[in-house]
What we know:
Helix content is 3%, strand content 38%.
Amino acid sequence: MKTNGNFPKHPYLLECIAITTDDGGLGFVGVKDHILFLWPWYAGPDGIAGWVQHRSFELSTLLPTSLWYNTISFAEGTDTIVMSTSASVFAIKLKSGHVRNLCVTGSYYSIVPYMSFYVPDNLKHDTEDEHSICQRDTTSYQDN
């Protein structure tokens, strides 16, 4: 496969994050001038591959006005990125543009999103002690 070497040369790429595209390929997402850009790696019908600006979102239409925007995380399998702003931290669904406010802003440089987790049996508490650090909640996980 040939490449066109057309890697997007924009300042926001220093603060971009890698994402998985709809077809399972590699992509990047970054912000410049209050616009969120998506750049997937695309192989054309002629066999030449390169980076293609696929979509962009005007952040002022999705999020409250902010002095700065920073992409900090991507939740694979959910098509969701997490962005920190001067006002708050938001999750944005890339397909729908749906926005969810996660928390007030702070010094977030990375967030590790996860869909589920497993608590081994030897770490589960059988008591319902309200002061326990690990309280057992049978609605939040399923035993296999």
